[in-house]
Amino acid sequence: SGPGVHARNAIATTLDSMRPLRRTPVPPGPAGLAALIGPVTAALDGSGPAVAPVPVTSAIVSDDYVASILRAVQPDDPSVPLESDEVAVVLATSGSTGAPRGVLLTAAGLQSLNESVNGPGASPQWIAALPVSSMGGFNVLIRALDAGREPIALASLGGAEPFTPIDFQRAVHRAAASSSDIRVSLVAAQVRRLLADDTGVEALLGCSQVLVGAGPLPAVLLETANTHGIRLTRTYGATETSGGCVFDGEPLPGVSITIDRTPEDAPGEVLLSGPMLALGYRMDQASTAARFTPLGYRTGDLGSVDNDRLTLQGRIDDVVVVNGVNVALGAIERVVETRPGIESCAALALPLGEGEVEIVLLVVGSDAIPGLRDDISQAVRAALGRPAVPRRVAVVPEFPYLPNRKLDRAALRALATEPGRVAWLP
Asked: How far from 217 is each of 107, 213, 265, 343, 345, CA to CA, in Å?
């Protein structure tokens, strides 16, 4: 019947579930991890209610953000019971491109890839470096519980304090006291910070596996890591797939990738299927039916598969038409991030009126690089053609991120459109 049919059948039984859904407040810092371990353990083995991890308002988590999470997961409300008794956890999506959705996750789905990630019979020591109220960090908790070791939390977890190489090194040293197999999941911004510091490099070398997800990994970071002998594993997945399920382009055992080209001349959309799929979205049958299909979960990403390896080509909604030519913003970013002095970049399509758009580029790097804009223009023109060349380029000190460390696309757009926020290169 396929994973999509299972999801729709689960949603069709809306309001039949007797299992309660309880909000679990997740404060920043190690206390947030400690607050989740007991409730999540009980939710997974069925001895406790389903869990809805919700961050607590803090210096980096606004009241509005918390409110958006609560609207998505709708916990503690008997008038909106769970869609299925199989649901163990309801976790909100990032909301990086719109309002968050509550994702209905089962214990079986969350735990289905543990052996593939941890290794048969292995008991690695995981380090919690990402917010545990979001899928990247929550996934680490699931893997750690399966390994029989509680994860070691960074002092900076969830924005409790700034993420620093010293903070990370201390966690690695603590982990080394109990295991020689140390694993961690990071985002590109954290990797960049660690690779720029000798302490961070040393700490990364102490890890047997470094997973990097929540977005593209710039080629320059991969090259820098390789130079130091550090192997980074790029992960791909979503909250709807119980986290990363494709490692370095290869699906984990049990995971299937389908490329849907409908119509035939359209770019291919990546669909994922397997035991790790969620049942659907909380109180949102329309979105569930649209995204969880008989072929698998529609990711909204463009990609291709060659020799069983997935190559991503950007988001469907990131393909824009410039002078009658389709341009993928993600393709522009992949070209630019290889240029010298560029740490990371983000291409945006801004409306000009009458259906026309202009492509602008925000870059984290050095605006003192001679001829930076010309170099970017020439590289993009050579690789993708003239329509893809950004009309404007600005260098910024850093990008805005959501509390879960994903790029805040709405804030980026505001940065590029509000007068005086950035200085465009001449």
From this structure: 30, 8, 29, 10, 11
CB 141 within 8 A of CB 33: yes
CA 368 to chain centre: 31
Task: Write down the pTM of the prediction.
Answer: 0.83
How buried is residue 212: exposed, middle or buried, by Cβ count under 10 Å (0-12/13-18/19+)?
buried
Instruction: Look up residue 317 and give its amino acid.
Output: D
Q: Report the C-alpha gap between 404 and 94 in whole angstroms.
A: 7
Give backbone dihedrals phi and psi of 97, rounded to 5 degrees, phi first: -120, 5
Bridge-based pairing state of the strands 296-306 and 292-293: antiparallel
User: What tokens appear for 128 in the block?
Assistant: 């919690």
Classify 72 as helix, strand or coil: helix
Apex CA 40: angle with CA 129 and CA 286, to 5°? 95
**Which residues, in sequence order, are CB contacts of 238 under 8 Å at separation 6+?**
93, 135, 272, 297, 299
Q: Is the CA virtual torsion 187, 248, 103, 275 positive or negative? A: negative
Among residues 379, 329, 331, 336, the alpha carbon closest in space to that of 358 is found at 329
pLDDT in tens, the chain (426 residues): 344 444 444 454 444 568 999 999 999 999 999 999 999 999 999 999 999 999 998 877 888 889 999 999 999 988 899 999 999 999 998 765 568 899 999 999 999 999 999 999 889 999 999 999 999 999 999 999 999 999 999 999 988 899 999 999 999 999 999 999 999 999 888 998 999 999 999 999 999 999 998 677 877 888 899 999 999 999 999 999 999 999 999 999 999 999 998 767 666 899 999 999 999 999 999 999 999 999 999 998 888 888 889 988 778 877 788 877 778 888 888 888 878 778 788 899 888 876 788 899 998 876 677 888 899 999 999 988 888 999 999 998 888 877 766 778 888 888 888 888 888 988
